[in-house]
Amino acid sequence: MAGRPLLEVRNLSVTLPVGERKLHAVRNVTFTLERGEALGVVGESGSGKSMTSLALMNLLPRNAIREADVLRLGEHDLLAKDRQEFSRSLAGKRMAMIFQEPMTSLNPVYTIGQQIMEMTLPGPARSAKDIRDRAVYLLERIGIPDAGGRLKQYPHELSGGLRQRVMIAMMLMNEPDLLIADEPTTALDVTVQASILKLLMELRKELGMALILVSHDLGVVSQSMDKIAVMYAGELVETGPVADVLGAPQHPYTQGLLASIPAARDGGARLPSIPGTVPALFALPEGCVFAPRCIHVQPQCRTIRPPVQSAQNDHLYRCVMAPDSQRLSLAKPPSAHTSTAKPSPDTLLSARHVGCTFTIRAGMLAKARSLTAVDDVSLDLAEGEIVALVGESGSGKSTLARILLGLQAPDTGEVLIAGTPVQSVPPFERAKLVQPVFQDPYSSLNPRKTIGQSIGRPLELHGQDSPAERKKIVEQTMELVGLPKRLFNNYPSQLSGGQRQRVAIARAIILKPKLLICDEPTSALDVSVQAQILNLLLDLRDELGLSYLLITHDLAVVDCVATRIAVMHRGKIVELGNKDDILSSPGHPYTRTLLGSVLKVDMPALKARADHAPEMQAHTGLLR
Amino acid sequence: MLRYASKRVVLAILVALAVSFAAFLLLSVATDPASAIAGEGAEPEVIEHIREQLGLNRPLLVQYGSWLLHVFHGDFGTSYYWHQPVGTLILHHLPVTLTLALSAIFVTLIVAIPLGTIAALYPNSLIDRLSLGIAVSAQAMPSFWLALVLIILFGVMIPIFPISGDAHAWNYVLPAIVLGAHSVPAVMRLTRVGVMDVMASDYIRTARAKGFYGYRLLSRQVMRNALLPVVSVLSVQLGYKLGGSVVTETVFAMNGLGRFALQSIVGGDIPTVQMLVVLFAMTFIGLTLLADLLNAWLDPRIRLA
Amino acid sequence: MSEMDLSFKAAAASETGGELLDAAPARPKIWRNILHHPGLMLGLTILGILVVLAVFAPWISPYNPYDQHLPQRLLPPVWVHGGNAANWLGTDHLGRDYLSRLIYGARVSLLIGFGAASIGCLIGVTLGMCAGFFGGIIDRVVSFILTCQLALPGLLLAMALVFLIGPSVGVVILVIGFLHWSYYLVVTRAATQKIRDLEYITAARAIGSSRLQIMVTEILPNLFSEIIVIFSLEVGVAVLAEAALSFLGVGIQPPTSSWGLMIAEGKVSVFLRPWLVILPGIFIFLLVLAANLVGDGLRDLMSNESRR
To answer: Which residue is closest to A446 within chain C, CA to CA?
Structure first.
């Protein structure tokens, strides 16, 4: 389509004052978007992707400084409008945004009908009845049955997935030209995620609306977007058509990101990963912002800001290396050393017919409801195995984990660890057999204790060694998990997520347990850090002879590290078997749904598309 | 909603019983009214006789039970000091305190809520700091001192308001200011925090994305959420005022329940004190119940649970 | 730990997150934050001065506060006509030096303030932690007790109890302390409930800590900062409560010099000799203000810290 692009952004920068310092959250971001086009903005934490979307919608905190050469939507110059003007003419009308947390993004004291209908003020063109009809139409269109009745409901009566759908309906009331979606499905279950994304794509085509989808998940972006923009540490490092960028990535960061996505490893090879961590953006870097972590780094990279180069057509990237579609992905990992030894036949953990039911009362005089969290679960784990327990939220996996750890007594059945019932093992002995690693690196460490104290506490509690001996053991353990010794006296708040998770692992292994129960150990981490932690877990298995029960919802992680899989749904184990068998031919319908919902980066397909000439988008979106 | 209400009512009754028993226990243990009535230097037989007359030699639980029974029949005991039924005495003094308490709440509201809201909307501005300063100062001032200062000011220097008695409406101005000033800091802070929290919430961000701004954002989206906790606190504050008006009434020489309570205490009038404590407690419980129900009605999350 | 495979070590080293997020020193910089907070500094200064006055009263005050000199009754302060330099702030109705009485009054107020706040702290924190940690029936019982305590009219009951038991400093401290623990309980209980569900508590159980150990070593350190804030504020509350009691005649009795009592004694001549009322009130105001400034300042610091 001829004419100017719908959205034009040139040299957008966002600076946030933090205390006495300034955080350069977004630097020199430039891109355009045509009518009806879908752009995926991808990046890990600290990449500035959310800040960019907030900057477009004028939702930055009051003390933030937004600068750009050009910031234009249609014929509206976004820079020239003050907040009031923007709110009056653009927000919710020509541009709309949906957010990550559906549970808290709706006003709790108004019905959803009120919230949807207040988007459009009645006036000469629209009567109140028209507005209501449109609201009902949209609700039904987004898949909420009995829309008329739902209008009277309050947000807290709806599930997360439904609330997000309501948000979408709400934002589409005025048929905006551009919809920005900031991680709209991250807080939702995998199965719900797929349906929400499908809905967004359908609506986009119907309304001819442009879409910017911000996500950390490459799989999500690869399936549904036209263009992709990869951000790192506040800068745009690569943009272009999705097939080109993901099929033939040019920037080392993009390559590393794609390579470190967990996937099946051949013969126990280590997962490639990007060394180091994302820098804090208080000082403007000289040279390339990725230089400290780049394996192809050259001396000039540290001093001169790399220019923008073009691979082909719209595929742009910011690096000094020449375009080469054949260039391999990042760092050949050190030769596979993770053992391929078969797990021993000794059964380490055995759960038989374990059940657990909770009674819930809303208050002192309310009626009691019973909730069966775990329903007749039987599971075995042999020494040296990595068994993955796969389930979504509400499947009962966390309750099962607590039971297996011996921290909660099951109502029925029993759990044996190394032959003895876990409930009757004295706490100190049990602690030496099985230890947990949790999901949230931010709440698994006591903020008032130093790293050394947290890791050393198990030793201190068991009272075996002198303080000097303890310190030595703690330091050895820290080295084993890849933490520098000098962090001994630091507090958790000074460490990154990946480092904290290493601390949690160190604390778990210091008593030399046989079994680690890991509850979503990498879900809260960035993809690149995730790869590091997974490698660490694999190394520790070989080094210390550990076995793992890995609880996760991420099938890619499962594919990468597990030997056997147990699928859990509504408290029951619905499928149990070898990883390869189950992943290739799942038996149970739930497993099939789960596998079908996973959005993966389909490399072969992308590579094939990259070889063809790119098509100009041909959207015939009718505007009504 | 009905189930919620009935739950709260049952709880309120239980609390009332517990409180009345606790007060009864404390007061009975703390003192021996018989010797106070007999006077100093009275002989043991006289004291014993009085004790029997008043039924003070029965076991405590029996005394409490009998007291409770009488209360249910509307007999609130007879004052040792005034030799009149306690109920009549209380009713006589109630209107003054009630008027005072309500005026004080009014003062609190018109000062605290606007100040708190403005402070929240312009954090760290001059008005924010000023209102915080006022709050901190008002909280540190003993109310009787403030009362005396106001008396000096308006009684001597600029005589506009009367400084004693409770005959006319004007009499209530100064006392209402003193009594109200005490809650202003708390309510102001609560409003400020409430508004700030709501302004920072996700759903307000959504509202901004929908195009809400300025006054419209405030009135329609923010205030209803921010003022929810204030409603409950106000009822509690009203309860405190009823119980805490002693000082104000004493300094301004008003014939309210507070001053009456002080006189009863000093006079060793146990039945009256007992009844007053229970009365204040019951009023407080009733007001919190009201506040809970109001809160439940206003907040759909509770109403429809 | 056996010897490590060379390639493993090398691989681990290249992958470590060796960089600190924020190259800050190991100990958090509390002292700098305190110095930069004007309210906190002001509060600490005033408090410090008053503590010094109280502790060193015998050496600082010019006269014995109990010495009566009836011929020199009701002398005005030195800046009012009729005052003299012998008694800077004049004398009271019994000829006692006002300045000395004010200085000794600091002892009473500080003693009662800190004493009552400590008793309240002990009761409230213990109950709050137990209620928050154990939940269930214990929580329900504690909540019921709390509701009852809140329903009791504090001032009234305090007046009655102190007067009837017998007014003395000890009784006042005990009574005020026993009636003012609700704030501690509410905050401690809420904070404990939040922490109880965090994963480091589960981890502590997994390594074999007992419940008591968890409460004391894991949860309590996280509550310190909030408890200190409440403690400062409660000192102010206790001081005001004692002042009110003494003012009404049912608290500290003469001849002990309590600021509230001094105001009561001066009330009769409030129009002729306003300083008798104003001066002690200023002292009460300053003490409570200082306590509140410290409490608020600490709360500000805490919320800044938790934003990291």
So the answer is: C200
